Amino acid sequence: MDNTLRRIDIIKILMEYVKDELIISNIGFPSKELHHIKDRNENFYMLGSMGLCSSIGLGLALNTDKKVISIDGDGSVLMNLGTLSTIGHTKPNNFILLIVDNSAYGSTGNQKTHTNNTELDKIAKSCGLHTIKTKNEKELRDALTKALKENKTTVIVAKAKAYNEKTKNIKIPPVVIKYRFMNSVNG
Ligand SMILES: [Mg+2]
């Protein structure tokens, strides 16, 4: 039986554990699916800058005491691989990089990426990062529980199957997304 999770399942599970953590979600379906599951002031929906979700999350984590979670994708991390080296070098104690690895550029039509043979968890590990690879719901729940409890940067590579939930576009004006998020960072 194929019990590989979809991105929407992974984000739903994540949101069961999230309290007041700040979330940066990648442009496209990660943001749309997060918005669909649970809209909140602490969500920063990226509307541009593909590839930079992890970098924005890192920059934020280095400038706040709050816990920051980046919901990124394999395609996005592949186009900004240097990010893992930078995260490994800086390692704030309040950052979780959740890479939903569905081996596809989901938001542009599920074209294949190269994560069938490029193992992002191994790259993250070799950058000195505490890394957990998950292949099913139980492993993901265990990883999230641990990562949210611990005070260290954790990279979770959550293997997924390519699927995009049919969600509406986010209608919140970008400036509102920005200001309500800034308020929750400072509040
Ligand atoms: Mg992907």
UniProtKB/TrEMBL annotation:
GO aspect biological process, one term: coenzyme M biosynthetic process
Oligomeric form and interacting partners: Heterododecamer composed of 6 subunits alpha and 6 subunits beta.
The protein's Enzyme Commission number: 4.1.1.79
Domain spans labelled Thiamine pyrophosphate enzyme TPP-binding: 45-157
Pathway note: Cofactor biosynthesis; coenzyme M biosynthesis; sulfoacetaldehyde from phosphoenolpyruvate and sulfite: step 4/4
Function: Involved in the biosynthesis of the coenzyme M (2-mercaptoethanesulfonic acid). Catalyzes the decarboxylation of sulfopyruvate to sulfoacetaldehyde.
Enzyme class at the top of the EC tree: lyase
A single MF term (Gene Ontology): sulfopyruvate decarboxylase activity
Reactions this protein catalyses: 3-sulfopyruvate + H(+) = sulfoacetaldehyde + CO2
Transmembrane residue ranges: none
Keyword tags: Coenzyme M biosynthesis, Decarboxylase, Lyase
Gene3D superfamilies per UniProt: 3.40.50.970
Name the record gives this protein: sulfopyruvate decarboxylase
